[in-house]
Fold:
Amino acid sequence: MNGALATWAHQVAEPELREPLPRRWAHSQGVARRAAELAEVLGDDADLLASAAVLHDVGYAPRLAVTGFHPLDGARFLRDIHAADERLMRLVANHSLALLEAEERGLRGVLEVEFPLLDDHRLVDALVYCDMTTTPDGQRTSVEARLAEIMDRYGADSVVGRFIRRASPEILAAVDRVEAALTAQPR
Structure:
C-alpha cells in the first residue's frame, strides 16, 4: 500500500524515467514493489522507503545527469526542484552504499556534506535490500545474481565494478539483516 509520499514520488519519477529510460523505470518500479513487502517490518517508515525505492535511480534521467553520479544528481533534483523531505533525499543520495562509489569518482566529500548518511540503519539496509534483489527489468532476484549481473554489465575494471567489489560484503550483510528481520516478523 502506498501512502501520500510514495504517490508523490511515483508522480515525480515516472516522467523522468518512463520514456527516456524504460528499463531503468521498470527497475525502479520493481524496487518499489520490493519495498512494499517490507511495510510491516518498517511500520511508520514504510511510505518513506517506498518513496526512496521509486526515486532511487531518478538521477539517471538524461536531463538530470549533471555530475554523472546518479545518487547525487537525483538527490539534488529532489532538493532543488521539489524541496523534498530531507530523509528521502538522504536515502536517494546514499542508496546501496553510494558513498563508496562516490569515493571512486572523487565525489565522496561532496556527497557527505550535501547529503549525510542517515543514522537509521534499518531504512538504509531496507533500500539496499530492495535495490540489490531486483533485476534491471524489475524482477525479483537473489543478491548474488544481482551483484554478478552488475559486474558483467559494467566490467570488473570500471568505476562501478571497483565499487561493487568493495561494497559487496556490506551489501550482502545488509540483505542478510533485512531477511533476518523478515523471518522474525510474526505471520
In short: Residues 159-184 form the longest helix (26 residues). The chain has a mean pLDDT of 96. Residues 58 and 177 are 26 Å apart (CA to CA). The two ends are 18 Å apart (CA to CA).
